[in-house]
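pasting for the record
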Amino acid sequence: MIHKPNRAYFLAFLTVLALGLSSLQGRGDLRAAGNPDSQSAPPQKAPIKFKSKKDFSVILIGTGGPAPTHKRSNPSTLIQYKGHLFLVDMGFGTKARLMELDVDTGDIETMMFTHHHIDHDGAYIPLSMDSWLRGRKHLDLIGPPKTRALHEFLTTYYKEDMAYRKSIVECLTWDGITSNVDIKELKGNNSFVLHGVRITTTEVPHSIYTLAYRFDADGQSIVVSGDLTYSDNLIALAKDADILVIDSGLLIPQKPPEGLFHAQPGDHPKPPRKRAHCTLEEVATMAKKANVKKLVLTHFGPMPVDEIATLVEFRKIFSGEIIFGEDLLEIYPQISPVMGTPVIVHHDGMASPSRWSPQSSGSEDSRESAQPALE
């Protein structure tokens, strides 16, 4: 019996054919871009789409923890200074968030780690590969011990993959991936200047070796704590900082619906373990002792936070501004001459952040609409 192809098979055939032709056409264009004999125009690096309104700022790329949600990716923080981008940590979801922000990964030439937990470095391999494929010619890779091993795993395990892609895009060189890569493995207190920004590090306590970073430029300062428990080192590092982006610690969760969590047959109490994250009181105390102007909370768990109850507890210790971080939120060190609080903008389409300024008192939640980061 001979079966005549139906309409569904015919449409599927056309789809596969179109995809195949598109792939061949794209490959031809890539080869032409690297062929000097080609009549195609010479390759041009895509312009930077993302442009901040200020010279110095911090953008929260991912504000979740090990268990991300659709609103919060794994931890990642972007510091920008006059177009130079410093990406601190890159957990899963970082690349997608950068795309939402219209950041060309090829323009990220400084990648940094606070520590090597998978929610903080899990996206490094695909992100670094993508950055190189998009034209990165130099990489400063900075982090605690094992940073070099992570990069060497990329260049060794994916050696054939990289060679294949380089053969397709003939204009690519090995610069920025196997050559012209400066790796700094750091321990303890360090200070150096990169792209006009002074970067200072210190060790903070966590379950594995962890660094906190301070960025100073033009008399302003931004500190990224990494994961930690109470730390005198962080207090010293963040002294009088304009912005402290910190592991939010054990905030007060919203009360879950009754019956959502209940003991199961066979459940047994778990033995106590050493804490790896701050309590709310420890976060507030460190911010107070460091005299930071703006405290930005990140690294949230999957449970929604009771912001009002949390802020009431914070206000008992810390009198500065408190910001509940959100993915793609951009924060400037500048002080508003009217409000006496920092100017805050975030990516269009995201919810307005919660803010508690020094002018707030009692348990009233101060909320103000943010402006879109991009126009």
